[in-house]
Design brief:
Two copies of one chain form a homodimer.
Chain A: H1 12-22, E1 29-33, E2 46-47, E3 57-58, E4 62-65, E5 79-82, E6 87-90, E7 102-105, E8 109-113, E9 116-119, E10 129-130, E11 141-143, H2 151-159, E12 164-168, E13 172-177, E14 182-183, E15 194-195, H3 198-208, E16 212-215, H4 223-236, E17 239-243, H5 254-261, E18 263-267, E19 271-272, E20 278-282, E21 285-290, H6 294-304, H7 306-312, E22 322-327, E23 331-332, E24 338-348, E25 351-356, H8 364-369, E26 372-376, E27 382-383, E28 388-393, E29 403-408, H9 413-423, E30 427-432, H10 434-443, E31 449-452, H11 464-470, E32 476-491, E33 511-514, H12 519-531, E34 544-545, H13 548-556, E35 562-566, H14 567-572, E36 575-590, H15 597-606, H16 609-617, E37 621-622
Parallel strand pairs in A: 13-16, 13-17, 14-15, 17-21, 19-24, 22-25, 29-30, 29-31, 33-34, 33-35
Antiparallel strand pairs in A: 1-12, 2-11, 3-10, 4-6, 4-7, 5-9, 8-9, 18-20, 20-21, 22-28, 23-27, 24-25, 24-26, 26-28, 31-36, 32-35, 32-36, 32-37
Helix pairs in contact in A: 3-6, 4-5
EC number (chains A, B): 2.10.1.1
Catalytic activity (chains A, B): adenylyl-molybdopterin + molybdate = Mo-molybdopterin + AMP + H(+)
Organism (chains A, B): Halanaerobacter jeridensis
Chain lengths: 633, 633
């Protein structure tokens, strides 16, 4: 077991300094057609090759005249002119013949005969003529060096008789995905295989930041194969990125290869996600090894490649926009590593708050959903709820006032709500915290609303008793989302191994439970009690999943054999479903948000016929009371 | 002379309403590879085809264990495990074998023998394991409909096993440049020929606004040829633009062709530039005829095509950003047409001001330089200096605090200053108003500084007397820019027709003068007086150009035969140069701007060795006092 498990742990800024200070950033220049140059940056000042107009041009449709011939013309005393001698017809852009020095616009000309006109206003010399050089003079500066070309610029450069210009080369980034377990998108998967998509994310980020991204084939975890590819890449490209293999595992070769071929400047940065990053240089080409976890790959690429790409392209590095927001929740973080928590910004409790999203480095969804990054210092063990934090924006098009945050129980129909709300320009963020978790989030003012299906086992009523207990002094109302079937889910081949809850105690099927506080768990415990079973008789009672869907997926996958969940989840994974109960799922909405436009749009959605139809197209749902305010009986 | 000279004159908003209300905007959908979809907009919700991970995956490099086997491990009481039976080596991403249910990270494992390890901390069930569906669950909503894809999104979609997605088709705009006088860029020009660049500006604007622009060959002013192209275009493309021919001239066919093939909705809008625009529809395809003047073409395209492109692409029309600024100068405008004055924004007199740029529709440079458009109402005859105006931004990257405005005499070395200041992130706008014009602009506080070479004919001194007269109560200082040669310029073939100023009275050469208030004109008048010549003896004394370069261009072109100007201008146009005098060109800077960072950078530039070298590489300049403060003698 040979492992090089020692990584540096230097601060992000120190790593950046070490990296940028040791790179020789050289911008290259290329000649391109200006017609293809929008967004490119001039490497040389552009001067006009000619004057425009290059002749005296009529600025109007009309007649060319000699100004002196028209002096004194008036309404009472029009002057008559003869074609050929006194005037000539002329269109916009045509050269004014030498003998004339003014143009009278056609609207001011009275045609009195085929070859004769009258005018009532005299012309001043050079009126309505664009004289030579009016727009551009030969040799004049059109655009300075280091200027980013716009569509309008392209016109002026062409007008100046220039078609080819010198611009900075767009840096080409080669991205080398490594990993024996990786397969290309579109391949059907075997266990242990992972779809390789980091390279596509990084290619697209490179393009977004002014570079060009080129990915290679996936390369297996083989020292020689990777090394050969890296050698070729550094000879041809401006920047080389190796994804995965940057840490200190048995098959992590990046650091060693960079060290063999060039110099490792940094291996390991005190950041999360993304710590085990390799920053190096091989024959003056910057080479970076990023971790394989997608969030880590994207964030290290952002910190260590984004500024570099702009510099290589001769561009200014755009300032990263920052806003301040109060953390919507407490976040505990490890000392010794700066954590970049992905957050969604929302207007909550009358102020801008940052809602922390999933923190695992494998959760690409957290980056997709995020508006920005909230950095928790390496010298801190986290932030308290309400702490004022700086948020670095990832998404400048964010709109906190149109972001609605729900916490609580997960339900499949929330995806329909999310999609419909997106059409109404509301970003709907659902945090799967379980029914009780949702009430707690409301209590802590971490969300705008909660979703719950909590059975009061004494009354058989749903939710009201829990709301009264957990939110005693809060004015809330309950709006029904759906009624839904809960049942035992198991693989089709196991269908005859179980008929009812009671059988769980005697079967050897491996159960999988929902987390504490989940309404489904409350229901399960209630049903166990009803059946007179001690939870400890259930094999797997302590193992939990957090949503219906992950639970169903685990069963479909063989990670467990049986669990309680909704029919739609069972159907999504083609599982057997044994109905256990129908339950009520409500939204709990604080009264103070009654007039909030986001909540109003949410209610519009769930009260629409379309929503109900979409819900019913999933199985196991009833919408008889969907959208209704549920009074306490 | 058959002319259809009647145009409508309807308000911009009415024209937009008539246009958008009568178009049937249909978004088309296409299936593309998600890897190529950054910036595209989903036409359908994207749901995951699979769960990710699709198996229980190790989240760490380490060992897979059974959690229960590790219970009670501590530093004092380590637990020993045997390879194969108690643990198995596992790397990040590998499938956890069924028999194990936890992973201990390698850093927490002590290797004690080849096949034996010790651990000092127990594992909890499912620790360091990414369970099935942790990132994505099969069937889960990944992205809603009408969502613009980011680089991060692409990763998540690929992770969900989706490679092809439905997005809105990018609308294709065909741009048909018409005009017998037009030639393609890169062609050498004959008098009357014009470089066709509108189509490239519009193509690039179309791309910027989410469409695709395709230009056809230039088509001559021939009714049938244009009609054939339009017929073909409407059958294939989403939008058709005909440039030029939209007015009411002899060879303006656009309106008639649209009327023949479909319906003209609007012909003529009360706006400047851009009034004679044609808005129509042919077989459900929107067709627009834009005027040939480049500013008019770009502005009408902006008003009538930009919103349409976004809508056809299924995108939201981005809000046009607006700022308020005080007009830096009085602008007189015609009643009855809304004028879109291009303005540069600058911080002047402690507030944001809009500096009106060239107003002619042929001056593409005004759009290149502009930060925004200041609309002057069709019901107003203009705006006063200081009027608070709304400015619609063209350039969101504008930076008024780094924009420096100079007014006054034109000099070729100002192009060098402009280029060098651009490297220091200062936008240097020079308005050629002549030496006296510059002093007037300073008096009116329309500029930060002025440039002048005004000879006091009584003392032979430059500038001081004029500054004292025109800016009596202003504290200013003079900084020398250059000394320069002024001389008579004429075509080489005319070289022997003139030796000195006095000869002008007797020669039959056609003179061209500079405008009133230009220092060169003051110098010329002084030299005439010295030579005892009455200005009226000079053939062409009343004809004027506004800069050295346009004057030299006019002579080179045969528009005139002789004029007074600087050596560098003569050389740029290969003209004969007969020296008349050396004169001093100074910058006049109000003391209050002494510490302004833009002025400081300007002084840094002109005091640099590099600037002096570049100036001397032009001919006819001396830099002995360049950058020095000039005291009154």
């Amino acid at each position: 077991m040979e492992r090089n498990i020692y990584l540096d742990n230097i601060a992000v800024e120190d790593a950046q300094d070490k990296w940028y200070d040791n790179l020789e950033i050289e911008t290259a220049v290329e000649t391109i057609d200006v017609r293809e140059a929008r967004g490119r940056i001039t490497a040389q000042a552009i001067r006009s090759n000619l004057s425009a107009p290059h002749y005296h041009a009529s600025a109007m449709d009309g007649i060319a005249v000699v100004a002196a011939d028209t002096a004194g013309a008036s309404e009472k005393n029009p002057i008559s002119l003869e074609q050929g001698t006194d005037y000539q017809m002329i269109d916009t852009g045509e050269a004014v013949p030498d003998k004339f020095n003014a143009v009278i616009m056609i609207e001011d000309v009275n045609q009195v005969a085929e070859d004769r006109v009258e005018i009532e206003v005299g012309a001043t010399p050079w009126q309505n003529i664009r004289t030579v050089g009016e727009s551009l003079v030969q040799g004049e500066l059109i655009l300075p060096t280091n200027h980013k070309l716009t569509a309008h610029d392209i016109g002026l450069v062409l007008e100046g008789g220039v078609t080819e210009i010198e611009v900075y080369h767009r840096p080409v980034v080669e991205i080398i995905p490594t990993g024996t377990e990786l397969v290309e998108p579109g391949t059907s998967l075997e266990p242990g295989e992972i779809i390789e998509y980091n390279s596509h994310v990084l290619c697209n980020l490179a393009e977004q930041w002014g570079g060009r991204g080129v990915k290679t084939e996936i390369i297996a975890d083989d020292y020689e194969l990777i090394k050969t590819q890296v050698e070729q890449a550094v000879a041809e490209k401006d920047l080389v990125v190796i994804t995965a293999g940057s840490s200190a595992g048995r098959e992590d070769y990046t650091a060693q290869i960079v060290d063999d071929l060039g110099e490792v400047l940094v291996h390991g940065v005190s950041m999360k996600p993304g710590g085990p990053v390799v920053l190096g240089t091989i024959r003056n080409t910057p080479v970076i090894g990023v971790p394989g976890y997608p969030v880590a790959a994207a964030l290290t690429f952002r910190l260590f490649v984004r500024p570099l790409l702009y510099q290589l392209a001769g561009d200014e590095v755009p300032e990263v926009k920052k806003v301040t927001a109060k953390s919507a929740a407490k976040v505990v973080s490890k000392l010794g590593a700066r954590e970049y928590v992905r957050v969604k910004l929302t207007q909550l409790e009358g102020e801008q708050r940052a809602v922390p999203l999933a923190r695992a480095s494998g959760q690409m969804g957290s980056l997709v959903e995020a508006d920005g990054l909230m950095a928790i210092s390496e010298f801190s063990e986290g932030v308290t709820r309400g702490a004022e934090m700086e948020v670095e924006l990832l998404n400048e098009g964010m709109h906190p006032a149109d972001t609605l945050v729900m916490s609580g129980s997960n339900d499949l129909t929330l995806d329909i709500v999310k999609n419909e709300l997106a059409q109404k320009k509301v970003d709907f963020i659902t945090k799967s915290t379980g029914s009780l978790g949702g009430l707690t989030a409301l209590k802590r003012k971490e969300a705008h609303l909660a979703g719950a299906h909590l059975l009061d086992t004494e009354t058989g009523e749903y939710n009201h008793a829990y709301v009264e207990k957990h939110l005693p002094n809060r004015d809330t109302y309950l709006v029904n989302l759906v009624y839904r079937q809960q049942g035992l889910m198991l693989r089709k081949e196991d269908a005859d191994r179980l008929q009812k809850i009671k059988d769980l105690a005697t079967s050897d099927l491996l159960f999988i439970n929902r987390q504490r506080g989940a309404g489904t768990r409350v229901l399960f415990d209630y049903k166990l009690e009803e059946a007179g079973i001690n939870p400890q008789e259930i094999n797997g009672y302590d193992r939990v999943e957090y949503t219906h869907m992950t639970l169903a997926a685990a069963i479909a996958n063989g990670g467990a054999d049986v669990g309680l969940g909704v029919l739609a989840a069972a159907q999504a994974f083609d599982l057997e479903f044994i109905p256990v109960a129908e339950e009520r799922y409500d939204l709990i909405i604080p009264k103070k948000y009654e007039n909030d436009k986001r909540i109003q749009k949410l209610l519009e959605v769930i009260r629409s016929q379309q929503f109900k139809e979409e819900v019913l197209s999933l199985s196991g749902y009833r919408t008889a009371k969907t959208g209704q305010v549920m009074e306490n009986d």
